[in-house]
Amino acid sequence: MKTGIEVEIKEGNEGYMKNMLLVAILFVVQASFAAPARDVKPRGVEAHRTELTKDASYKELLEKGKTGKALTAKEKEFTTKAVNDALKGTSVSATNVILMAQVKPEILPYILAKSEIVKSSESTKEQKDQAELDLKVIESGGRSLDVNSASAKNDAEIILTVSKVENYANSTVASFKADFVKALENGKSIEASVTLASKGKFDAKKLKELCI
């Protein structure tokens, strides 16, 4: 038969062990929240495209993009989450970029790749600035895009092409893109903004020739 002292000691030991276990759990939880996020090396557009095409929702998006059928709530949710996650930590608003991705799903791997460049510590300041400007071109273009118009897909293609321009003669890429964004913000159409940004050197039809 156990004495009252033995029972008290046993209960005390059990209480001590429970307290220690609770402290250990709290320590692990706090450490996991305090741990800095692991920096991800920027991947290219093709790497993101390959990864996305494994997802059934993205495949459905691409198919809808070809046929012009309306997106389901599930497909819209997929696009919204992908863009929001990608642009978190950048200065680019997701709302209009989401519209662009829903009109032209092929743009999604490009958005993911550019946002990784912006957020990665491995990127130089020049790379970050250029990638952020490319995303702002898409953001401003999405704001000017009439998703219900017959020209929506063509306009989205023009916006994406402006963002992808690498170089052209007698000008700088950054000023061309910045002027394109400014023209859109001043209420100019997407096609007119291309002409204005190029100082009349070319129009939207000639734009693809600028991409390398």
The largest sheet, given as strand count, sense and whether it forms a barrel, is: none
* Sequence stretches where pLDDT stays below 50 over 5 or more residues: 22-37
| Class per helix and strand makeup | mainly alpha
β-strand percent reads under 5%
Shape: globular
Q: What is the count of DSSP helices, taking H or I runs of 4+ residues? A: 10
Structure characterization notes:
By secondary structure, the protein is mainly alpha-helical. It has two domains: 1-35; 45-210, no CATH class. It is 67% helix and 0% strand. The protein has ten helices and no strands. The protein has helices at residues 4-34, 45-52, 56-67, 73-87, 95-103, 108-119, 125-144, 152-164, 173-185, 190-197. Helix 7 runs antiparallel to helix 8 and helix 9 crosses helix 10. The longest helix has 31 residues, at 4-34. It starts with a helix and ends in a 15-residue tail after the last helix.
Task: Give the helices and strands, then pairings.
Layout: H1 4-34, H2 45-52, H3 56-67, H4 73-87, H5 95-103, H6 108-119, H7 125-144, H8 152-164, H9 173-185, H10 190-197
Helix pairs in contact: 2-6, 3-4, 4-5, 4-6, 5-7, 6-7, 7-8, 7-9, 9-10
